[in-house]
Amino acid sequence: MSDRGSCTMDQLALATLLTSGRYDRHLRRMRAVYAGRRAALVEAFARHSPGIRLTGLAAGFHAVAPLPAGADEAAVIAAARERRVGLYGIGDYRGVAGAAAPPALVIGFGNVGERAIGPAVADLLS
């Protein structure tokens, strides 16, 4: 009663997923899918640029790749997008206090097919 905004159909659908066990099966399946994507990203960086150590992989759907000191984040991102590789700079996520931190790339892998990751990293690092 205090919510006044949640759709009843959505609540019933979620309740059915939870009580039937389908939600748990979906989570187990998706964990395996995302683990495969994460592994493909790590392997592609190890093959194409072994000096770059990805961080932030323990959870979530993003990795952080540090850039050399003094690198121009915006230029790297622009060059990647010209090659149809989408990524973001860590600067987009920093407040004023973190503005002087080293440049890095934020690489999302949650919505990228596992087979597309290797070629995208190769394009990014070539």
Commentary on this structure:
With 126 residues, the chain is mainly alpha-helical. The protein has one domain (36-125): Aspartate Aminotransferase, domain 1, CATH 3.90.1150. 49% of the residues lie in helices and 10% in strands. The chain has a three-stranded antiparallel sheet, with helices on one face. The chain is extended and about 55 Å long. The mean pLDDT is 88.
Characteristics of this structure?
126 residues; mainly alpha; Aspartate Aminotransferase, domain 1; three-stranded antiparallel sheet; 49% helix; 10% strand; extended
Multimeric state: single chain
* Overall pLDDT score: 88
| Counted beta strands | 3
Major beta-sheet overview: 3 strands, antiparallel
Strand order of the largest sheet: 1-3-2
- Strand-residue proportion: 5-15%
- Write the CATH architecture name: Alpha-Beta Complex
Helix content: 40-55%
* Domain tally: 1
Number of helices: 4
Q: How does the helix and strand content classify structurally?
A: mainly alpha
- Rg: 19 Å
Give the termini distance in whole angstroms.
57 Å
**Low-confidence parts lasting 5 or more residues at pLDDT below 50?**
none
CATH 4th-level superfamily:
Aspartate Aminotransferase, domain 1
The CATH topology is given as: Aspartate Aminotransferase, domain 1
What global shape is seen? extended
- CATH C-level name: Alpha Beta
Order of helices and strands: HHEHEEH
